[in-house]
Amino acid sequence: MAAEQKNLPAGWAKMRLKEVTHLRNEKIEPRGTDAKPYLSLEHIESGTNRIVNYGSSKEVKSTKSIFYSGDVLYGKLRPYLNKVCQPEVDGVCSTDILVFAPSPAIDSGFLLRFLSREETVEYANMHSKGINLPRLSANQLGEMEIDLPPLSE
């Protein structure tokens, strides 16, 4: 990787996504808990990073993932739809959404933009498994290389 580092601006580093991010793996059974905002892929607008609305955790029955305000959410089902967002509330989401917790190694806003790039969509499409409902695994996404600027930038 040393040769590849030479092509980067001073202070930048070429890393794998898994080296600079942390996935939350907290799960919840929504039944019997207080109502929380709920996000599924249908609540995230394709290609815009916009959350169009929230559901309620009271409306869902199966195990869901927990997210917190400021986390970056990435839709791993049909990744060509480019469903990435950063909610400003705590809540629960579909397990077809990867939840990236804030990391001291990468700015969350930068991560949001990185995951939304056309190059990331192309990578995800190339590495997805499945015909009708292609999914990108968290492990495969974690292998993606990222040119990481210093946090001050």
Order of helices and strands: HEHEEEEEEEEEHHHE
Give the overall form. Answer: globular
Largest sheet entry:
5 strands, mixed
Q: Number of helical segments?
A: 5
Give the termini separation: 22 Å
What does this structure look like?
The protein is α+β, with helices and mostly antiparallel strands. 21% of the residues lie in helices and 23% in strands. The strands form 3 sheets. The chain has a 5-stranded mixed beta sheet, with no helix packed on it. A 4-stranded antiparallel beta sheet has the order 2-10-7-8. It has a two-stranded antiparallel sheet with strand order 1-11. β7 and β8 (84-85) form a beta hairpin. The longest helix has 10 residues, at 118-127. The mean pLDDT is 93.
Secondary structure topology:
Elements: H1 2-5, E1 13-16, H2 17-20, E2 22-23, E3 27-28, E4 37-39, E5 55-56, E6 64-67, E7 72-75, E8 84-85, E9 91-93, E10 97-101, H3 108-116, H4 118-127, H5 138-142, E11 145-148
Parallel strand pairs: 4-9
Antiparallel strand pairs: 1-11, 2-10, 3-6, 4-5, 6-9, 7-8, 7-10
Describe this structure in a few short sentences.
The protein is α+β, with helices and mostly antiparallel strands. It is globular.
Which key phrases capture this entry?
single chain; 153 residues; alpha+beta; 5-stranded mixed sheet; 4-stranded antiparallel sheet; 5 helices; 21% helix; globular
